[in-house]
Amino acid sequence: MSCGDPHETECGEVLDHLYEFLDNEMPEGDCAKLRVHFEECSPCLKQYGLEQAIKALIKRSCGCDDTPTDLRSKVLARIDSIRAGQRSGEQVVVAVETTVELHAESARPAPEPGGAAEAKPAGRSGAPVEAGAQVE
Question: In DSSP terms, which residues pair with 128 in a beta bridge?
Fold first, then answer.
């Protein structure tokens, strides 16, 4: 995006760093350059205002959700581990683990390699149940 007018800082560079500016993650000198650009360039100022409004809306809508304590501690421990590996010069491998819960009431059978489609989600007793069966 460009307004077509010449600026000391190009519109593309301003927009590339817009979120850093909004999140106060830029050195003050760079922030000052962006402020000057916003004063001169109404399309970039408009984009800045739009992004600022979106961030505020997200904060209002999602800001009340608390991060589970165990998740927070796992993430912080992993960050520490990665930083320690980077300081020692080791190659750092990041693995992502996901957990998926299926509820028997909504489980659908997955096709098996042989073509048989038999679902065996575990109920509370640990015994297999068929898809759609009620779990006590």
Answer: 122
Fill in the amino acid letter for 46: K
Token pair for residue 70?
A: 């165990």
Please state, in angstroms and rounded to a whole number, the distance separating the CA atoms of residues 119 and 104: 9
> What is the model's pTM?
0.45
Rounded to a whole number, what is the distance in angstroms from the first to the last CA of the chain? Answer: 58
Distances (CA, A) of 18 to 2, 29, 38, 42: 14, 14, 11, 14
Question: What letter does residue 126 receive in the DSSP assignment?
Answer: S
- DSSP letter (8 states) at residue 75: H
- Are the C-beta atoms of 10 and 2 separated by less than 8 Å? yes
Angular region, 4: left φ>0, alpha ψ -120 to 50, beta rest = left
- Do 136 and 127 touch, CB atoms closer than 8 A? no
Amino acid occupying residue 133:
A
Residue range 9-41, pLDDT digits in tens: 889 899 999 999 999 999 999 999 999 999 999
